[in-house]
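Please predict the structure of the following assembly.
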Amino acid sequence: MMGQLEKPADDGCTSTTDTHVLDVKDLAVEFRLRTGVVHAVAGLSYFLDKGETLAIVGESGSGKSVAAYAVLGILTTPPAFVTGGRVLLQGRDLLAMSENQRRRLRGNEIAMVAQNASLNPVFSVGWQIAEQFRVHRGTPRREAMQLAGELMDRVGIPSARQRVNDHPHQFSGGMRQRVAIAMAMALEPAVLIADEPTTALDVTVQAQIMALLAEMQQQTGMGLILITHDLGLVSEAADRLVVMYAGRECETGGVEEVFRNPGHPYTRGLMKSIPHMDRKQARLEPIGGSLADLMNVPTGCPFHPRCPFAEQRCTTEPVKLQEIGPGRMSSCLRVNEIREQLDGE
Amino acid sequence: MASDRTVPADEPLLRVEDLVKHYPVTNGAIRKKNVGALRAVDGVSFELQRGETLGLVGESGCGKSTLSQTLLRLVEPTSGHAYFRGRDIFAMSRQELKDFRRKVQIVFQDPFESLNPRMTIGKIVAEPWAIHRGIVERSAQRSRAAELLELVGLKAKHIDRYPEQFSGGQRQRIGVARAIALNPEIIICDEPVSALDVSVQAQVVNLLQDLQKELGLSYIFIAHDLAVVRHIADRVAVMYLGKIVEQGTESELFDHPRHPYTQALVSAVPVAKFEHGGRQRILLTGEVPSPANPPSGCRFHTRCRHVESICRETQPELAARGIEGHETACHLTNAIANDVA
């Protein structure tokens, strides 16, 4: 299942002097298709600390979900190949270990909640939650089911103990997402990856689910990676964010700093194009053009065809992240000129 | 529309009165027995003025899409009336209905499924003229289609391309071009930007606003994204379990929501924690009850934090309760604080 490593890192399993619970460096993923190679993720780096929420923000095709699947080692190979990078989970390189070792960590130390609660329709929800305890801990069946009931209660499912034997279709979308969270939280992982956990839900249910995730995080101190396209949600729930476009990292930094003073024209464009809830704007300022075609990513900065600040060198010079402040990076070649210009706005 | 009848000058473009659509709930595989009714739309009244945008918000299952289908008479209502320029839509003859449907068009949510993949976009935009003959001469159709494509921001030279050659945002523009091909007066926009990426949403929102100004269109704008609705709507109606619970101007409704459900809905929208120090959030408990078996009295009473005994017994009417033009269906409107911000 796991993306095959082209260049296995030989020092893969040795721990570095990191304090980060998850540390991803130069992750690269490509899809080899009959029609060509798609560089879905090209050099993504980020870290996550204990108890922290990191948002990975991007639109369709930005590579935000593929990167998460690569971190978990659940991409299908072929066509997906992890072609480089390191993923250190509490110091151990997930990409350098065997699938067996990785499977032991998944669920136990790193878990995931997907957009549409991925539950098996033919097993009861209690059974599916209990499976975590039975497989990873060898807990006897009866006891595991009891633990499942307790967990369902903890994630706010009404009359949970009576409902452990119900099947997924007997629950609403919000309740199914609670079941998925219960399943992911069962073994109290150090890292939870939530891939658009509330996108399919109504806004009042979204508020419930986000409150639940925050509560779980507070109780267990887990690090949360929130993958989303919703900037409003990011501004409310995240501590730091990574903005991705066409598989590349545009910028990273603390949420407040990035929202107050974006360090990349794409981030700035996104923020100007969304309407605000607390006031009515005269007119939205959309980003022109369409999303980049991943089969044919523009040379230089992939955002240059849509960028109002693009100049000649943006179309040719390869971009790389540069530091623009404490804890802040941007891949924009003109970031310093542009920020001066924007300060005058 | 035939204007052989005199219509009062103050008659709104569209006036909906106590509209009801119940779907039968049946039991038994062969001999179907009616065992109840799913009250999808249960007594909805509102008006739409010329050139106005009415936002319609509410969560899944509140009946907003059934309402739009009933207004187009795609499904027959159980009871109630809807008047387009004073004529009852549900009493129209075949010919009148055809004229009416020319004047009321719809833009759908999913630009990937609402365009025929086997037709060029020029044919898609021109198709309405094959049904409503005499609007554009056949010989002029191609050039008019090209004009419409330009109007919605596409290139006229792409007229012979197929939908799959366009991105989501561009496809939604094609859907809009088709909707305006018959010079309609009302466009029902059913979640028109929900399927689009954020950077593209704004393009389509701006296009809809420009066309409204240029062509004098009225919109019924259905969406679950409250910020988008606030941006585009003049007035907003909030639905819960088949009923409008509150309606008012965009600023009244979002800045000073008066119905406890609207208050919870507005407070659920995420706000930057660093800007407002976080907002006081009203978390609703439980789930939306089934529209096949709605609660007695006020439908929201099972989840309302202000509930009193009157709420369980008497159904509150939608009425202005102290503020002109700002209607709520809540007995306690004036008793409860009306600010969530």
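The first strand of chain A starts at residue 22 and ends at 33. Chain A touches chain B through 45 residues (CB under 8 Å).
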